[in-house]
Amino acid sequence: MIDHVALETRRSDVPACVAFWALIGWHEVVPPDALLDIASWVARGDQTVHFLFVDEPVVEPVGHTAVICPDLPNAIARLQVAGHEVTPRENIWGSPRAYAVDPAGHRLELMEFGPGVRPPGVNR
Question: Does residue 100 fall inside a structural domain?
């Protein structure tokens, strides 16, 4: 399991990013005191996403952060109702998938389950 990912983000984009991530089941948490001036965090369970404050963020043009959304159809619906574009992707290893882009420009791959979890009857 990956503990956290750090995404370069303009400080002004953080509130919109926190709201976006809340739509897929993450909530804002307070980082340790030593990091308050450099980042904001969201979490789900033991995993965190760190929005690192930078003036000119580097956003990977093709790279992405893959996120498990056990309630994927509902997460997609919440994103769409909030005005975010969601692009369905081909199922791989039996998992429904979609891409969405957060307000800072980071691409997320939303998956119902990951490659290590295969429902009965799925052999890929």
Answer: yes
DSSP string, the chain: ---EEEEEE-GGGHHHHHHHHHHTT-EEEPPPGGGTTTEEEEEETTEEEEEEE-SS----SS--EEEE-TTHHHHHHHHHHTT--EEEEEEETTEEEEEEE-TTS-EEEEESS-TT---TT---
Whether 94 is in a domain gets the answer yes
Which residues lie across from 108 on neighbouring strands? 65, 100
| pTM, two decimal places | 0.87
Is residue 122 situated within a structural domain?
Answer: no
User: For residue range 22-39, what is the model confidence (pLDDT) as tens digits?
Assistant: 999 999 999 999 999 999
In the predicted model, residues of the chain with pLDDT beneath 70 are 1, 117-124
Q: What is the CATH number of the domain that holds 20?
A: 3.10.180.10
Q: How many domains does the chain have?
A: 1
Contact at 8 Å (CB) between 42 and 48? Answer: yes
